[in-house]
Amino acid sequence: MGWENNIDSSTSLSLNSTEHLIILEYRKADEITRAMVLKALSIDGALNVKGKEELA
User: Residue 41 and residue 37: Cα distance in Å, rounded?
Assistant: First the structure.
């Protein structure tokens, strides 16, 4: 899909229960909600992600 993997695969991440729930909910979210989450975290620009209303 054109994504670049900038994460060192030899690094293991440990998630607390809140972080785990955030990831699960993000995966279930629709495209617009995901775009809003990325924007709120200020990482939407780095990933070049846009909501549907910005794609039109």
Answer: 6
Question: pLDDT higher for 15 or 1?
Answer: 15
If phi > 0 it is left, if psi is from -120 to 50 it is alpha, else beta; for residue 34 that is alpha
Where are any strands of DSSP class E within the chain? none
The letter for the amino acid at 22 is I
Contact 52, 31 (CB under 8 A): yes
44 SS3 class = helix
Q: How many whole angstroms separate alpha carbon 42 and alpha carbon 40?
A: 5
pLDDT in tens, 3-52: 565 666 667 889 999 999 999 999 999 999 999 998 898 887 777 666 55
